[in-house]
Write a structure and sequence with these properties.
Helix content of chain B: over 70%
Largest sheet of chain B: none
Order of helices and strands of chain B: HHHHHHHHHHHH
Number of strands of chain B: 0
CATH topology of chain B: MetI-like fold
Radius of gyration of chain B: 24 Å
Distance between the termini of chain B: 6 Å
Oligomer: heterodimer
Number of helices of chain B: 12
Shape of chain A: globular
Number of strands of chain A: 18
CATH superfamily of chain B: MetI-like
Structural class of chain A: alpha+beta
Strand content of chain B: under 5%
Largest sheet of chain A: 6 strands, mixed
Strand order of the largest sheet of chain A: 12-16-11-15-13-14
CATH architecture of chain B: Orthogonal Bundle
Radius of gyration of chain A: 24 Å
Helix content of chain A: 25-40%
């Protein structure tokens, strides 16, 4: 999301004071939700803001608990074949759509077919590729949807066949691409099926109102299987593109939860509203990608390592980003399921030892005072990216004498430059699609095509990821992924800088909130106390 | 007058065609496309998206298709807000931007014209300097500074008015004020300048020489003439203000069409950008026409025969 241009100005304006606004009615939750949803259609959206709402409106086979842990959703139980490729789900008997119709296995088959149908043009269709023949359907090689690895054995039994044992498959089923759809209402309303009054979901809430750019209002779904435990009377989602203004609405008690906080007001928040400030690790990494397909980084591992060593990540996170980010010495963030966080050798060294090593590697790479490296850092327009790029440029210049130029581009231009690899060093970020190391590591396999924006290629790495995908023993699989990351880190096609943290302001009367790495907080587990 | 208006409208058609053509090709010249995102999609998924939105066709074919569609009033689906059509987004947002902009403009004209006239009539006095000082400040201090200060003071500290959202009159007060302030300042300055000029004009001296009271001279003759530059300014200014202000709408969370200008372009939402550009062009042409039609009421020398 582009960052509001006037945030800096807002910083100067907010003085020290506490809000005294009128209290909101009990049981209604008002949530800042970043941006106007691009779509509520589970197959057309791709953002986090949309997923937050869809998670309230629909329920997949597997759902997420208050801490984002996996819990039975539309399926009450399931079996996995011994080779790990066939999943049999038994749907709960009391599963109902918001119009009272029963939720059946056919609704899932219909939804998977639609989501993968090339005509639907779902931008996240690839998340379902572990399902047998899914990729062939999306790329048009296979036109008969009946060949997809999903079958309704009867109304309440669903069988999904995978290409290979996929350790994170259950976690993946919490993605909106894997939700069921109510076929009759889609066929009746066509492209306007997501409008209030038309949308039929199987989640804890239903869509009551949608005013684009203003708000989305949800009310409880009386047919939801766990309706008696849903406390909220209303959930309101607001697009809050401007973080400074979002904070003001929060202080005026118009919002109970903010989507984010303005980075330049963190100090004020910590000083004045610290009890309401949440800041915890998130499943994402901020890094610099190096173009390994061109000079100077092609076949020059010492140079990549030298630049990585020369970055003082502690200074960056403590002095520049200042939002509790965690300095990154690996690519996969801490706290990922079935994974031991890896680490670059120099994590334990102090910066002066790193500096010495950086100088030595820089010289080994063929550069020096007489022959300095000239390099360009590409980033998309944003104050934060700019500050970081300036700082890193200064560190490289100061320590190694690298001549750094900065190139900032507007978001879409930047994406095009990155994808066409017309860059040397590119600012990047990656948020995991599911809680598994694979979502981070498979970006860099040789045949990842455009997704592998660094052009990194190492057969040993590819083989480990390929074998891990086939491995049914979780411990073996974990060992393979960890080894792959170690190879990746020592080859250094990326320079991890920090791990993201999630930041929210949350009113003391919001109950049931549990911080978690996926930053998933289904509204069905939240409530609002009298205030 | 009617034939004049008809002629003007007819001559607007080629103008709009040129605007459409330029905008259509310019937005597509910009690097990046509507479906580029942080997470690169596999090529086959990108191909499906392009096919679904006809982006795989040659540009000229897309252009012909687009022209055909807008003739039937179909501005196409938004590429970014995929559940809505562009016509629908504009139709939903415009009344809100219209209410907001029109209120701000009425306020701005009433206050700005009065203050400007006052400053001119009391030239070089304290009132003149106070009005002009305030006006300079109003022009110099941008919206995105004024609006957050107002919400902080009135919304957060004193909790008198809502900080954001759109609903009752309460929600409109701060955004209308924030939109009107710079306009008040501009109009006051324009009025003062033209009033000073008019007061030195021969016909005012004549009116005074004939013994007309000062009040009648000012209200009957000077003000009408002094309003002319303001009137010329109002056409484009009104179009600008009622198609919304991206800053004000974003700050106050108002569901108008202002943000579509900027967001549409940033998102490469081709159809939305086109819809907004066409809408804006038509509005400017109409408002300029209205201003021109109003001119004879203020300046007897102008006639549209």
């Amino acid at each position: 999301m582009p960052i509001a241009p006037f945030r800096l100005f807002l910083a100067c304006l907010v003085a020290l004071a506490l809000g005294t606004g009128a209290a909101l009615a009990g049981g209604d939750l008002h949530v800042g939700n970043a941006a106007e949803p691009e779509s509520l259609d589970i197959h057309l959206s791709s953002g986090v803001a949309e997923a937050n709402i869809q998670r309230d409106l629909f329920e997949g086979l597997i759902a997420e608990g208050p801490d984002a842990g996996l819990i039975p959703g539309a399926a009450e139980s399931w079996e996995i074949s011994s080779d790990g490729t066939v999943y049999t789900f038994h749907l709960r008997e009391d599963g109902r759509w918001s119009n009272g119709d029963p939720v059946t296995a056919h609704d899932f088959v219909y939804a998977f077919h639609r989501g993968l149908d090339p005509a639907t043009a779902g931008s996240y269709a690839f998340i379902l590729y572990p399902v047998k023949n899914a990729e062939a359907v999306v790329n048009g090689e296979m036109l008969a949807l009946g060949n997809l690895g999903i079958t309704a054995l009867d109304d309440s039994t669903l069988e999904i066949t995978l290409n290979a044992p996929t350790a994170y498959f259950l976690d993946m089923l919490t993605h909106h691409m894997a939700f069921p759809l109510h076929r009759a209402s889609l066929e009746e309303h066509g492209s306007s099926w997501t409008r209030a009054g038309n949308l039929v979901g199987n989640g804890a809430f239903t869509l009551d109102e949608w005013v684009p750019q203003s708000h989305i209002k949800l009310v409880p779904n009386a047919y939801f299987h766990d309706a008696e435990n849903v406390a909220l009377d209303e959930v309101w989602y607001y697009p809050t593109e401007d973080e400074g203004q979002e904070l003001q609405r929060y202080r005026a008690d118009e919002l109970d939860i903010t989507y984010d906080i303005p980075a330049d007001q963190i100090e004020w928040i910590v000083e004045n509203l610290n009890d309401e400030y949440r800041n915890y690790p998130y499943l994402g990494v901020y890094y610099y990608g190096l173009n390994t397909t061109a000079v100077p980084f092609a076949d020059n591992i010492p140079l990549r390592q030298a630049l990585s060593l020369a970055i003082n990540r502690e200074i960056l996170t403590q002095r520049i980003t200042r939002a509790g980010e965690i300095p990154a010495y690996s690519f996969v963030p801490p706290g990922v399921a079935f994974y031991q966080q890896q680490s670059m050798d120099f994590e334990g060294w102090d910066q002066s030892a790193r500096n010495d090593a950086a100088r030595a590697l820089y010289a080994e790479a063929g550069y020096g005072e007489d022959n300095p490296l000239e390099i360009e850092i590409l980033y998309n327009t944003s104050d934060n990216h700019k500050k970081i790029a300036i700082a890193i440029g200064a560190m490289w210049k100061q320590l190694l004498g690298v001549e750094v130029t900065l190139r900032n581009e507007e978001w879409k231009v930047y994406l095009a430059s990155r994808d066409e690899k017309t860059y040397q060093v590119v600012r990047s970020g990656w948020i995991g699609d599911y809680n598994d190391a694979n979502t981070f590591l498979d970006l860099f396999v040789s045949d990842a095509g455009i997704m592998n924006s660094t052009g990194y290629s190492n057969p040993a790495y590819d083989a480990l990821l390929e074998n891990a995908a086939l491995e049914t023993d979780m411990a073996n699989r974990q060992a393979m992924l960890e080894e792959a990351e170690r190879i990746f880190l020592s080859d250094g096609p990326v320079i991890p800088i920090y791990f993201y943290t999630t930041q929210h302001m949350i009113k003391p009367w919001v109950q049931g909130w549990v911080d978690n790495i996926k930053d998933v907080h289904p509204s069905r587990f939240l409530s609002v106390a009298e205030h | 007058m009617f034939s004049y208006a008809a002629r003007r409208l007819a001559s607007a058609v080629p103008t709009i065609l040129v605007v459409i053509t330029i905008a259509f090709f310019m937005i597509r010249l910009a690097p990046g496309g509507p479906f580029d995102q942080e997470r690169q999609v596999p090529p086959e998924v990108a191909a499906n998206l392009e096919r679904a939105y006809h982006l795989d066709e040659p540009l000229t074919a897309q252009f012909v298709r687009y022209l055909g569609n807008i003739l039937t009033g179909d501005f196409g689906p938004s590429f970014r807000y995929r559940d809505f059509g562009v016509s629908e987004l504009l139709a939903d947002g415009f009344p809100i931007s219209m209410q907001l902009g029109a209120s701000a403009m009425v306020l701005a004209v009433a206050i700005g014209f009065a203050a400007g006239s006052l400053a001119a009539l009391r030239r070089n006095t304290f009132s003149d300097m106070a009005v002009m000082g305030a006006a300079m400040t109003g022009i110099a201090v941008p919206n995105f500074v004024v609006a957050p200060i107002m919400t902080l003071v009135l919304g957060v500290w004193f909790a008198l008015l809502p900080v954001g959202g759109w609903g009752g009159i309460n929600h409109a007060i701060l955004p209308v004020l924030a939109l009107a302030l710079p306009q008040i300042a501009t109009i006051a300055r324009l009025t003062r300048g033209s009033m000073l000029e008019v007061l030195r004009a021969d016909f005012i001296r004549t009116a005074r020489a004939k013994g007309l009271s000062e009040r009648a001279t000012i209200t009957g003759h000077a003000m009408r003439a002094a309003a002319l530059p303001v009137l010329s300014y109002l056409g484009p200014a009104t179009a600008g203000i009622i198609t919304g202000s991206v800053v004000i709408e974003q700050i106050f969370g108002i569901p108008g069409i202002g943000r579509y200008f900027v967001q549409g372009a940033l998102n490469r939402d081709y159809t939305l950008v086109m819809g907004v550009v066409i809408f804006y062009a038509v509005l400017i042409i109409l408002l300029n026409l209205i201003v021109d039609l109003l001119y004879p009421l203020f300046d007897p020398r102008v006639r549209h025969d």
